[in-house]
Amino acid sequence: MELSADYLREKLRQDLEAEHVEVEDTTLNRCVTSFRVLVVSAKFEGKPLLQRHRLVNECLAEELPHIHAFEQKTLTPEQWTRQRQE
Known about the structure:
The protein is α+β, with helices and mostly antiparallel strands. It is built from three helices and three strands; from the N terminus they run αββαβα. It has a three-stranded mixed sheet with strand order 1-2-3. α2 (49-59) links the parallel β2 (34-40) and β3 (69-75). The longest helix has 11 residues, at 5-15. The radius of gyration is 13 Å and the shape is globular. Keywords: Acetylation, Cytoplasm, Nucleus.
């Protein structure tokens, strides 16, 4: 399976109705696939961190077995706005 930052970004944006998605390929010449993501979605409202991460993991259920390292940050639109103002 060919995974790219663009592919993951679009899938997360569509499936989680995200208003902002950043995907960084952190593979850096290693022989394993590694990504860091930031997802901002209203679907995270009222959900604790574990449930937010489960939503992301469910969205990428087919892709995660092919990814060695996966770091995620999940924010609500309100948290994202607050974070950018700091």
